[in-house]
Amino acid sequence: MQERQVPWHQRPVLRLFDESGEAPQVERVTLLEFFQSVYAPLKLVGKSKHSFSLYATAINFATRFARREVFIDELDDEFMAGFQSWRLTQVEPPTVNRDYRYLMSMWRLARRKKRKESGRPYNEQDIEVEPLDEYEREVKCWSLDELEKLLSAARAVQLDMFEEVPAPDWWVALLLVIYYTGARCTACMSIRLEDVDFSLGTITVR
Fold first, then answer.
1. H or E stretch including 196?
2. Which residues pair with 202 in a beta bridge?
């Protein structure tokens, strides 16, 4: 008779024990706590708000998958495989892989820090679940005719100012940066004056 597998979210919170059978005096941290107190201060200094939001999104979906807060030491093959399958019912493989990369990045840092502190790996086994295969997506962009229509609409904007810049100029600049760089709208929205090098004619997208 085949054993019925219990869904991950229905399993009890794991308890770690030392050799004596007593619960060790270690503080377990959730994904969100680890991100806020350890990962972000070490890895995301100087990064845009968009970078923070991507990690927050991955943590949020991991929590929704588990239906409770997830501890950083609970990330393992079973969790990641289940998470991928669950996310795949909602979004395409590239988006699943994005969340996977952010969760794995936090897990790797936690593992390195734990190994450095104790001389032992954070988890007994590596996470062997791989990213999903991605299909090659067709690149789509505005035609010159479509771009001109967008620019005409932007120049006709009736607002006076937007973020201390004439609104029509602001929208035209945003559309042109998106068109010529191919960057996402959210990334372009995070560009600041210090990211623009007028002498070299370059923009740094963070």
1. strand 196-197
2. 197
Rounded CA-CA distance 186/53 in Å is 11
Interval 41-92: pLDDT, tens: 999 998 888 889 999 999 999 999 999 999 998 899 999 999 999 999 999 8
Both structure tokens of 177: 């940066």
Report the C-alpha gap between 158 and 166 in whole angstroms: 10
Q: What is the DSSP letter of 71?
A: B
- Residues sharing a CB contact under 8 Å with residue 42, sequence separation 6 or more, in sequence order: 109
Distance, in Å, from the CA atom of 103 to the CA atom of 87, rounded to the nearest integer, reads 13
Q: Coil, helix or strand for 161? A: strand
Structure tokens at 145: 């005719």
